[in-house]
Design a protein that fits this description.
about 260 residues, mainly alpha, Arc Repressor Mutant, subunit A, two-stranded antiparallel ribbon, about 10% strand
Length: about 260
């Protein structure tokens, strides 16, 4: 059966919409061949049809989009509608992993396939509960057994659900460990090294959170600058030692008048 581009788009949209998980291009092609007997020549245009679907739902008047995430295509609500949907669903999608589960998941993601004993060796504690929790949440899967190890332990790896939660399509898209190690480790400065050199002002923070001179610096500063009391004393002395005013007082005027009367 031959299909044009528009027909491929319609059938592909129906498959993506009805799927309960992300579906990739190969799965869509297989479904079309098995149910519609689509010719290989028509399937060559499937990649263009999927790109057209993604572009179509990127338009602003659609509240959802078709996005490649978790290893396949799926319909997702757009991010600006997240607050509304989160309020509708309550705490359904707000569950968080414990620190122990996060550590175990990180080990599996970067060392997969890995065994439980390797996780326990790295973390230093039992990993039974964390592994079971991650299996229940379908974030990890059992990949098989390590036939070369004693007891043939189970091998664990991440699932498509894990990639879907992170919005990636393959494990290769995870941050590389050497990229993470490039961040400089911040080491606190030793308190003894943080003290200023001799001759520099030493500032302290008081109980109110204000910066002020330390007691030693304050005494030094007070020794160099005259105190307020000393300045006031000097001003008072100047007032006492100041020359008499040129304008005579009332008593002096009266004495002057009496001298004039006696002379007369």
């Amino acid at each position: 059966m031959s299909m044009n581009l528009e027909e491929l788009m319609l059938h592909s949209e129906a498959i993506i919409f009805a799927a309960d998980r992300p579906v990739n291009q190969d799965e869509i092609a297989t479904a079309l061949q098995e149910n519609k007997n689509v010719e290989d020549e028509s399937l060559e245009k499937l990649s263009s049809a999927l790109e057209a679907i993604v572009e179509k739902y990127n338009a602003d008047f659609y509240p959802f989009e078709v996005k490649m995430s978790g290893g396949g295509y799926q319909f997702l609500s757009k991010s600006n509608f997240h607050p509304l949907i989160a309020k509708l669903n309550g705490t359904k999608f707000r569950k968080r992993l414990s620190a122990a589960a996060m550590e175990t998941l990180a080990i599996i993601a970067y060392r997969q396939p890995t065994t439980k004993s390797e996780m326990e060796y790295i973390r230093g504690v039992n990993a039974d509960y964390s592994v079971q929790k991650l299996l229940d949440l379908e974030l990890i899967v059992i990949l098989g057994r390590n036939e070369e190890a004693v007891g043939k332990p189970l091998l664990y790896g991440t699932s498509h659900t894990f990639m879907d939660y992170l919005g990636i399509n393959s494990i290769e898209e995870l941050p590389k460990l050497n990229e993470i190690n490039q961040y400089e480790e911040i080491i606190p400065t030793d308190s003894s090294e943080a003290l200023p050199d001799e001759g520099e002002s030493k500032m302290v923070v008081n109980e109110n959170g204000e910066i002020e001179l330390s007691e030693t610096e304050e005494e030094t500063a007070l020794g160099e600058a005259p105190s307020e009391e000393k300045v006031e004393g000097e001003v008072a002395d100047e007032e006492v030692d100041s020359p008499e005013s040129e304008n005579p007082s009332q008593d002096e005027k009266d004495l002057g008048d009496e001298d004039l009367e006696q002379d007369a």
